[in-house]
Amino acid sequence: MSPTTYVRLAPVCACARHLGGHLVPIPAPTQWLTSNGREHRQVRARMTKLWRQAGRVAVAAARLRGDLPVAPLDLVHVTAYIRWRDRRRRDPANWWPTVKAIADGMTDAGVWPDDDSGHVIGPDMRAGLVLPRDPYGPVGEVIVHIVPLGGES
Questions:
Q1: How many Å apart are CA 95 and CA 130, to the nearest integer?
Q2: In a domain, 40, yes or no
Q3: Residue 77 class from Cβ within 10 Å (0-12 exposed, 13-18 middle, 19+ buried)?
Q4: What does the pLDDT look like over 28-75, one tens digit per residue?
């Protein structure tokens, strides 16, 4: 992981340094997908597509920085740190549709062969630290912590 990336992400999941693995930051490309969302199915499909593309683009950026290997990882544990821009109480598990779309994008990018239980343990959702308010910025970000448990496939 590059020093600049680690300095920016260190407060979010300081344990990543001790656990090893790879951190992939993903700024929110659109509104959050939640299990409580009541969007029309076409609107939800467009939002899912944007989150999936964001996961794929974030993997490409992480690989260019040298933060993520190019070869697919065979068995990994994935933790998603969800960072909002306010301090409201939330249940991070309700954000599984967002994290699932990101995991699908990472599968498309070839981080792992498939996002089934034979290759990916998790993803576990956690609340990250609050982001500073920015009226023109994204609604938040998701930082995906990938810990390889097996070899490369």
A1: 16
A2: yes
A3: middle
A4: 999 999 999 889 999 999 999 999 999 999 999 999 999 999 999 999
* 33 phi, psi to nearest 5 deg: -95, 125
CA distance 9 to 48: 25
Half-sphere exposure of residue 149: CA atoms within 13 angstroms, side-chain side: 11
Q: Is residue 1 part of a domain?
A: no
- Residue 45 sits in a domain whose CATH number is 3.30.1330.70
Instruction: Using alpha carbons, list the distances in angstroms from residue 100 to 126, 133, 153.
Output: 14, 26, 22
Length of the chain: 153
Around 148, how many Cα atoms within 13 Å sit in the side-chain half-sphere? 14
pTM: 0.86
